Amino acid sequence: MIADPESEIIEAFDLRNPNPEPGSRVDGMAYPGSYIVDANGVVQEKFFAESHRQRVTSDTVLMSVYGVGKAGGQKLEADVPPQFKLLAYPSEEEISPGNSFALMAEFDMYDKVHLYGEGSDYTAVSLVLDDNPMLQAKEQKLPEPEILYLEVIDESVPVYHGKVNIVREVTLSPAFRGDSIEVSATLEYQTCDDEYCFQPSSMPITFNLKVTGHDRERAPEEVRHQEGG
């Protein structure tokens, strides 16, 4: 832990959060965030929030970056032959207001079938969060697509074959009050095989997450930080 009462280190790294009111209790704080660093000291991933009241959970980091973690018991499994098999699930079963979690969609494409990515006239795969003022979705994370040349129409398009994982980070508002929340999204996609292009399609996805409030009980007065101490 490093004491930075004048926000000098925060300023040096350009991490100061400009959103708090000047002079408020949280003025001078940094954006809350985490870096994932490999054994060579190279940053592999980063997670940042715009408010000191928002935090990404450790399970969400593990699931988003490494594909491992607890992965709650709620799972949606679908078989859409001859296109793909799908497994969708949230990274958490239980969250708190201000927590970020991830929605995961894992495609297992049938042989010789490809799924379209972003950057073509075909419908790109997308996990779209349904409107809910208590939920804020960040940009989805997709693997790097392959570029497939379609000789018949002389066109190169971004596609996915085999196994494809899509991650969309979602933040529950710090203002949420309740003991559960329904998280609904729509999975949009289009696929083709070597001979036929299927029509663009969508699939609804819904999960119910338990919400646990924060422990707001203060520490005993004798162990609290004392001004001038």
Properties at a glance:
229 residues, mainly beta, Immunoglobulin-like, 6-stranded mixed sheet, 4-stranded mixed sheet, 2 helices, 16 strands, elongated
Protein described:
There is one protein chain. This protein is mainly beta and 229 residues long. It has a domain at 69-213: Thiol:disulfide interchange protein DsbD, N-terminal domain (Immunoglobulin-like, Sandwich), CATH 2.60.40. The protein is 6% helix and 40% strand. The protein has two helices and 16 strands. The protein has helices spanning 8-12, 58-66; strands at residues 33-37, 43-48, 55-56, 76-80, 84-90, 94-95, 99-109, 114-116, 126-129, 135-137, 146-150, 155-160, 163-172, 180-189, 191-192, 201-211. The strands form four sheets. Strands 3, 4, 5, 7, 10 and 13 form a six-stranded mixed β-sheet that branches. The chain has a four-stranded mixed β-sheet with strand order 6-16-14-9, with no helix packed on it. A hairpin with a 4-residue loop joins strand 11 and strand 12.
